[in-house]
Each structure stands twice: as structure tokens, then as C-alpha cells.
Write a structure and sequence with these properties.
homodimer; 234 residues; 2 domains; 9-stranded antiparallel beta sheet; 10 strands; 21% helix; globular
């Protein structure tokens, strides 16, 4: 099949006991280790959140943080899509595309990828300490090591922010690696190149803000991301 | 706001007349040009599709193709998430992360990004010529120039495939570029680095399949993607 990324109605017993996330197709691509889920989530910068809005789903990108089995989202208190998520069943996905798989026949073209799909209730976090901890997780997820050297949120900023928690129990991971899976007849016919064109994300050199005063060096937490041995991002 | 990516309940008149996609926040980031939508969609490899399943949304990654105002999806006829989409209101999003925006205060950390959010009905395509044309668009979207040199889908493969069409009228685009938007007091306080750490996707060198016979060269359509002047991907 050209693309079975959508058959993500997975989940393996260690992650979820519910029938609605049981692996139904492409079983070989489902991963059963909790660590696989954490790895896919932790390597991502943005998730896609699906919320029911006016009777139909809407999918929007958003940043996130994770602590153990809990994923945190946040948004402005005025953000309609986040407000709609409160207390409702949502879904979110994180996908890394690692390459395009070129095959000898059109229907066997594919992607190499790692993806995680989560379903669960988005619970409004009201405890102020947990809210602040979640904001730290979210900022540190996007910019590891930055939180402690910048101004923390003040009361007004926190008041304008909603934080949502999603339990990661009902989740699935799929990973595809390696070359094409061509039909024997197409391989035997010969003459058509097949293989993988790898894709990766890389950081560029940091660009100081226009309003940055002279003499402020790029901090270590930023510099280390660009260091050659830390590439690629994912 | 640290993250306003979620306020994607946009859309601008040229793309959509419906109230449910009217821009409500972050107006400066909404784009009004149809070409902006096309550019974000065309630069993506994977979209995230949100489908209503058992009363709650589920978000899965999938590949796609576009022809004018129509986006095409496909899946195995046995794929539950795609089957659930048929004839229903779905949403899909494509997001490119272009960098992490480092600010002087935690709440102003952000991402530079380009994202498109589409809402609409997923219509099952039944005309065989349109189905085949859609498969070509999807393969060519993932691997431009490859279709004509590989074996086309046969009748059995097409019978096992469903193709869905989504109208792109109800869509929105948001783009964030540039440096942080710090508070004046934080800028005045000084001493904290702020700026952007750019992120981009790059192709690696093509890797021939294990079962590729000797002497089959990397085709031009693959080689051109890796050529230095065609990097980055997005």
C-alpha cells in the first residue's frame, strides 16, 4: 500500500487497553514499548491537535510539553480551539518524516516516518503550581535549558493562559524504516531505481534579535543545539 | 503569547466565507492570498487529518496531493480512519516549523512557522479516471517526476484503494517570521540573549534499495532534490 500512515488506530496493551485504539492494520509497524512513544513525542516540536468544534473536527498545530504519562498543552484563554478542547475527548499526533521511499511501482511509494497518535480527554489544569510547571515543560520542550535564564511568567501572563493536561495512556506509535517493499514481478522486471531519499531537520546558525544589545553572547543552551554532533534534530 | 498557533480558526474572504473559519486572533499572522495556502500545502509531505470516530476526533498523518482547489487523500479500503472520513466533515493541517523564537521572557517563546488548516467534507471519488489522476497527484507530490518511470497502479491495486477529495475553500493560513516580540521592560533590563534558531529540512544522499540490481543510476527526479541549490526542502 502506498500509504498506511492513516491506519493509526493502533495501540498496544502497554499503552492502552481500549478497543478503539487496537491495532487493526500494518501490525508490523506498531510499536509496543512505552519508550517508543516518549521518543517520538520528545523529538517533536509541534503536535497537531484535533478538537471537536461545532460538531466537526478541527486540526491545529500547537507546542507541548511532557512529564511522564501526561502531555501538557496551553493557549490563550481567548483561543477558541483550546477552549473547545476543555473537558472533551481530543486527539493529537506528532509525526517525523524521515524520508521518501521510492519504489518500482506507484502504489508502493511510501514515507519513512515515526508517528505517535494520542486520544484522551483534555483536562483543564487549575492548580497554579502545576500550571507553572506545565509552562516550564512546554518552554523547555521547545527550548531546552532556556527557562532558568529568562523572566518567568508573571501573574498577569498566567491569568491569560490556560493549561490542559492529556493522559498518554491511550496512544499508539508507528515507525517505518528501510527500503521499498516492491512486488517480486516488478523487481524481476528490473531497470527502475528504487530506494530511499532520507530527510532530516537541521538547525541553522542562531540569529540575534534586532533589538539585542551588543555583547550578549549566544547562550550555551542555544549553541549546543547547533553543534555538529547534535545534528540532526530528529 | 507563547504560542498562538492554535488560533487557527481563521479564514480570509478569498478562501472562505464561513463564520467558523473567520480569523479571531493574531490577525497579523493570517494570510489572505490563495497562493499562500497553495505554497504551504505544496511544500508539505504529510498532512494531519482529523476525523470524527466514535464521537471523538482522531488525528492521523497521511500523504496528499493537490489540483487547484481540491486536495486528494487516499487509503486502503480497509483503513478505518479513512473509511470514517467518507462523506463527513473533516479537518486537515500542514505545518512547517521554520525555527524556535527565543525571547527574554518565558511567555514570549514561540515558533516561526507556516501552517494551513482546512475544513471540509471528504468526498469519496468514484470516477476511475479521477481516482487514477488523484493517485498520480499524490505520488508526484511525494516524489515529483517519479510517476512516469514506474509501473502505474493496476486494477487490483486501484480496487483496494479509496480516494477522497476535499474542497479547499474553507481554509486558513498562518505564517510567523522574524524575531521575538519581547516586552519593553524585558528589553530594557538587558543581558538576556534573544533571537531565532532557524530550522530547516534537508535531503540526504539517496540510498539504493537492497534489492536494486547493479547499474541502475539514481534518476534525475531524485538527484535534483539533493542538488545543493534545491536545499532546503522547506
Amino acid at each position: 500500500m502506498l500509504d498506511d500512515m492513516t491506519t493509526h488506530d493502533i495501540t498496544r496493551p502497554p499503552l492502552s487497553p481500549t478497543p478503539r485504539t487496537t491495532l487493526t492494520r500494518s501490525k508490523e509497524r506498531g510499536r509496543t514499548d512505552r519508550a517508543d512513544l516518549d521518543a517520538v513525542l520528545d523529538a517533536g516540536l509541534v503536535c497537531h491537535l484535533g478538537v471537536l468544534l461545532g460538531g466537526a473536527p478541527v486540526v491545529v498545530p500547537t507546542i507541548y510539553g511532557r512529564a511522564g504519562d501526561t502531555l501538557y498543552l496551553h493557549g490563550s484563554t481567548g483561543a477558541g480551539n483550546m477552549r473547545a478542547a476543555i473537558g472533551t475527548e481530543i486527539s493529537l499526533a506528532v509525526t517525523h518524516v524521515d524520508g521518501v521511499v521510492y519504489s518500482r511501482s506507484a502504489m508502493h511509494f511510501s514515507m519513512n516516518y515515526r508517528s505517535a497518535v494520542v486520544r484522551g480527554k483534555a483536562v483543564l489544569v487549575t492548580d497554579e503550581a502545576e500550571r507553572l510547571a506545565a509552562m516550564r515543560l512546554i518552554v523547555e520542550h521547545a527550548a531546552p535549558g532556556a527557562w532558568d535564564r529568562v523572566r518567568p511568567p508573571n501573574r498577569k501572563e498566567m491569568a491569560a493562559t490556560m493549561v490542559l493536561a492529556v493522559d498518554l495512556t491511550e496512544a499508539s506509535v508507528k515507525v517505518r524504516t528501510g527500503g521499498p517493499g516492491d512486488d517480486a514481478a516488478d523487481i524481476a522486471a528490473g531497470g527502475v531505481w528504487a530506494g530511499v531519499l532520507p530527510l532530516r531537520q537541521v538547525w541553522g546558525e542562531p540569529i540575534g534579535a534586532d533589538d539585542l544589545e551588543p555583547g550578549v553572547a549566544v547562550p550555551d543552551d542555544v549553541a549546543v543545539r547547533v553543534a555538529p554532533d547534535t545534528l540532526p534534530v530528529s
